[in-house]
């Protein structure tokens, strides 16, 4: 068909066509606002963050320490059994050095971000977070890191109560 | 289950911005597919529409919004959405309508119009992240790919240039595609490797562009194919599979797409394929980023773990290689209107298998192909095996 079809539909527009009003456009800006209930597992998780601790849930059926915590084990498909603290130290599983912000705008000072798996949780279980006090040359997969907590008075019950993960003192670099 | 064939396909241009509405684009693609299948809308028993997040359009009930353009009025109709996986999954949904016997002919129409979202569709991608765990960090969608790509290349020690070669191959392959947005016959490895760093290790030319576009396929039962004498323009669906892994993506090792492997296993079992490397002649894996093609070739069992880059370097995946991969030009070359990539995945398999791919026709004879799409938070795979 690619051989036989002569007309492929679609009229291309440049961004100038839109800005200059060459084509008819209709505009709308939504004003939706949300307040999420954090739920059972995340409410406790956020409260513990404010206290400077990381908490997980244990599933006695598969033996996993589930972090971030959830009230049910998605694999055994049964309720989890109890709360377990995990440590604020861990390992960089992967990372990026980002020159883009949320809206894909270019930034000059890169963001170091990635996944850190936490000591005390089951293998490879962790969360996404920022990395700091390391250069773009030093950061690597496998690096041992520790949370840098914000001072207690400025914590609000958010993953941002941890400012970032930084190289763990005394750990092998 | 009954035998089901693709008997016609259509697609629009893929461009950064098209004048037509999503509904108009859906109509154009659907009309072309019907013309190719020598059918009218009255011949269609059921319609499946595939399209990605409502937020791109700022219109909820997007399936209903696009309905009239996809020919679904007063018919059994459904909209499906499985993230980026929709590009292949909608055809699977169309397949089960016909395979089950509930419909003799189904029309599958996929549409995406990303340009409506201002200033960049990136701003609504922010809404796919977990509101408690991820969003406070103000994530950018490219981070997903950067983190997965880094894990993949580090675990296997794959040199970046073997990944960049995929972008070169696909943008060159797209030169033969009449709908292509970013075809570039002169692109070099250096161009990709020296392009701007977006979120290391991802560079600008590693990424497929956001696009507007639509695509459609007509699926028919074996009886219809016989009755209407469509055998010469039919490619058969031999197997379908789909699978999703946990949304807790920070609990999974991203180096291997286990969910793609499971989806492929499901499709291969149905297609009676037990040695995919030997039995599959060409592939259209999902390539929104260059490393994803490699990642998915490994998930599909077409390359050993960590070896897809080497295959690319050795030319195995070129159009005239032993296993042509993304002969369409892929998302990297033709464009990435998320769900509408149906046209370069299922559509390309159809055109290649029926010898209608024109300038893109694979020089070696091909009898079996596999296509695959991927989406959500690095967790979804949809796979279709087709053959002559």
How do you describe this structure in short?
The complex is a heterodimer of chains A (173) and B (388). Chain A is mainly β and 173 residues long. Helix content of chain A is 10%, strand content 34%.
Written description of the protein model:
The complex is a heterodimer of chains A (173) and B (388). Chain A is mostly beta strands. Helices cover 10% and strands 34% of the residues of chain A. Chain A contains 2 helices and 10 strands. In chain A, the strands form 3 sheets. Chain A has a 5-stranded antiparallel β-sheet with strand order 8-7-6-9-10, with no helix packed on it. Chain A has a 3-stranded antiparallel β-sheet with strand order 2-1-5, with helices on one face. Chain A has a two-stranded antiparallel ribbon with strand order 3-4. The model of chain A has no long low-confidence stretch (mean pLDDT 93). Chain B is of the alpha/beta class and 388 residues long. Chain B has a single domain (4-118, 209-387), classed as Thiolase/Chalcone synthase (Peroxisomal Thiolase, Chain A, domain 1, 3-Layer(aba) Sandwich), CATH 3.40.47. Chain B contains 14 helices and 11 strands. In chain B, helix 6 (160-173) crosses helix 11. Classes of the chains: A mainly beta (173), B alpha/beta (388). Strand 6 (89-100) of chain A pairs antiparallel with strand 5 of chain B.
Whole-number mean pLDDT of chain B: 96
Fraction in helix of chain B? 25-40%
Domain module tally of chain A: 1
> How many structural units, i.e. domains of chain B?
1
Question: How many H/I helices of chain A?
Answer: 2
Secondary-structure class of chain B: alpha/beta
- Termini distance of chain A? 59 Å
According to CATH, what is the topology of chain B? Peroxisomal Thiolase, Chain A, domain 1
Q: What share of residues of chain A is helical?
A: under 10%
- Low-pLDDT residue spans of chain A: none
Sheet with the most strands of chain A? Answer: 5 strands, antiparallel
Query: Which homologous superfamily in CATH is the superfamily of chain B?
Result: Thiolase/Chalcone synthase
Largest sheet of chain B: 9 strands, mixed
Shape of chain A: extended
At CATH level 2, the architecture of chain B is 3-Layer(aba) Sandwich
């Amino acid at each position: 068909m690619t051989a036989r079809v002569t007309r492929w539909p679609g009229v291309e527009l440049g961004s100038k066509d839109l800005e200059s009003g060459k084509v008819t456009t209709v505009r709308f800006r939504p004003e939706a606002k949300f307040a999420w209930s954090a739920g059972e597992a995340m409410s406790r998780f956020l409260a513990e963050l404010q206290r400077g601790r990381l908490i997980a849930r244990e599933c006695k059926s598969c033996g996993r320490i589930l972090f971030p915590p959830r009230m049910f084990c998605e694999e055994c498909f049964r309720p989890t059994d109890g709360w377990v603290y995990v440590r604020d130290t861990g390992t960089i599983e992967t990372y990026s050095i980002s020159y883009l912000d949320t809206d894909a705008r270019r930034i000059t000072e890169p963001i170091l971000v990635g996944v850190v798996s936490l000591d005390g949780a089951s293998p490879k279980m962790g969360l996404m977070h920022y990395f700091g006090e390391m250069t773009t040359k030093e950061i690597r997969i496998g690096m041992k890191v520790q949370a840098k907590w914000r001072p207690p008075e400025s914590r609000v019950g958010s993953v941002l109560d941890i400012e970032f993960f930084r190289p763990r003192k005394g750990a092998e670099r | 289950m009954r035998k089901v064939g693709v008997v016609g396909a259509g697609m629009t241009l893929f461009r950064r911005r098209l004048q037509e509405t999503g509904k108009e684009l859906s109509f154009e693609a659907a009309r072309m597919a019907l013309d190719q299948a020598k059918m009218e809308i009255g011949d269609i028993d059921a319609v499946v529409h595939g399209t990605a997040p409502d937020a791109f359009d700022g219109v909820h009930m997007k399936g209903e919004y696009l309905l009239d353009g996809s020919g679904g009025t007063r018919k059994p109709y459904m909209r499906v959405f499985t993230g980026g996986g929709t590009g292949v999954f909608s055809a699977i949904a169309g397949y089960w309508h016909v395979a089950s016997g509930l419909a003799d002919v189904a029309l599958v129409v996929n549409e995406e119009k990303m340009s409506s979202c201002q200033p960049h569709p990136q701003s609504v991608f922010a809404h796919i992240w977990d509101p408690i765990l991820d969003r406070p960090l103000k994530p950018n969608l490219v981070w997903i790919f950067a983190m997965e790509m880094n894990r993949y290349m580090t675990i296997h020690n794959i040199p970046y240039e073997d990944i960049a070669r995929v972008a070169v191959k696909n943008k060159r392959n797209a030169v033969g595609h009449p709908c292509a947005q970013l075809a570039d016959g002169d692109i070099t490895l250096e161009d990709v490797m020296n392009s701007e760093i977006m979120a290391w290790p991802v560079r600008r030319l590693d990424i497929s562009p956001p696009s507007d576009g639509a695509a459609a396929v007509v699926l028919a039962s074996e009886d219809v194919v016989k009755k209407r004498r469509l055998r010469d323009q039919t490619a058969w669906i031999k197997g379908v599979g789909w699978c999703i892994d946990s949304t807790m993506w920070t609990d999974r090792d991203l180096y291997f797409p286990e969910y793609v492997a499971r989806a492929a296993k499901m499709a291969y079992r149905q297609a009676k394929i037990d040695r995919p490397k030997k039995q599959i002649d060409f592939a259209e894996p999902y390539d929104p980023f260059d490393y994803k093609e490699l990642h998915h070739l490994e998930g599909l069992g077409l390359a050993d773990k960590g070896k897809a880059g080497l295959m690319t370097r050795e030319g195995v995946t070129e159009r005239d290689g032993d296993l042509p991969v993304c002969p369409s030009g892929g998302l990297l070359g033709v464009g990435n209107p998320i769900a509408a990539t149906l046209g370069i995945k299922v559509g390309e398999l159809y055109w290649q298998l029926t010898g209608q791919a024109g300038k893109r026709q694979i020089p070696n004879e091909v009898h079996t192909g596999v296509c695959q799409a991927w989406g959500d938070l690095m967790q979804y795979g949809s796979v279709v095996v087709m053959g002559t």
